[in-house]
Amino acid sequence: MSDQLVQQLLAARRDLSLPRALRALDSYDVMILDDLGYVQQNVDEAEVLFTLMAERYERRSLIITSNLVFREWDRIFKNPMTTAAAIDRLVHHATILKIDRGSIRAEEAKKRKDPKSTTTTSPTTITSPHDDNYPTEIHPA
Question: Over the stretch 23-49, which tens digit does the pLDDT of each residue have?
């Protein structure tokens, strides 16, 4: 779904209506961008994604899921400065949930194939700006 939203914003930018499209998204208190970085984006797509994140910064909530760790986010934003700025805005007031486990879909498929198999899960790590484990420096790869 994140890719569809980026494409809609890109079309709005082409039509010179990006500010209007971003204002319309302000009606949502929380926005979820799922699987960010899963689909490779070009520079224009990365720019509208950054614009969305920057517009929501300190005004509306944004939930992002990604299989990429922050040091790999240059694959999303293509530019080290934009990557650092996006991460900085995102983590400023964030609570970060790091789920260190295998794919749930793969585990379910394995269970369907072999009903006797057991699922092992790893703990979820939660960090916030008030924790000692919270990242204080962001360095793009």
Answer: 999 999 999 999 888 888 899 999 999
- Per-residue pLDDT at 17 exceeds 70: yes
Which whole-number Å values give the CA distances from 27 to 23, 120, 136, in the listed order?
7, 40, 31
CA distance 49 to 51: 5
Cα radius of gyration (the chain)? 17
CA 68 to the chain's CA centroid: 9
The whole-number pLDDT of residue 50 equals 94
| H or E segment to which residue 62 belongs | strand 61-64
Domain boundaries, the chain: 2-127
CATH class of 2-127: alpha beta
